[in-house]
Amino acid sequence: MYETEPQGEVLDQPDFLNAVVAIETSLDPEGLLQLAKGVEAELGRDFGVVRHGPRVVDVDLLLLGDIELRTERLTLPHPEVTTRRFVLVPLLEIAPDLPFRDALDRLEGQRVRRVGVL
Prior knowledge:
3-stranded antiparallel beta sheet, two-stranded antiparallel sheet, 25% helix, globular
């Protein structure tokens, strides 16, 4: 688990807690996205708030094996996976063989501090 400073359009808000998990699934990309959005709703996510603003939970699908996909609702790999330290640090911790080390080395700022283990 990592504590990270806000990124994006709304910077004047408390720090976020971020984590990355790896799962095995037989769901297709749209089915997995639907499941993730259902979990967000069950945990109290308000989908009508300001983009990048404070929220209870935010689940993003970063990668799904080698699948490359671009639909109206979903792009895989996630289009900002290589521009966000708060994604790359925990992602490379659980999957160090992914080819994103150079992207992480190029990022500046974006405070990410490890605060625990899930």
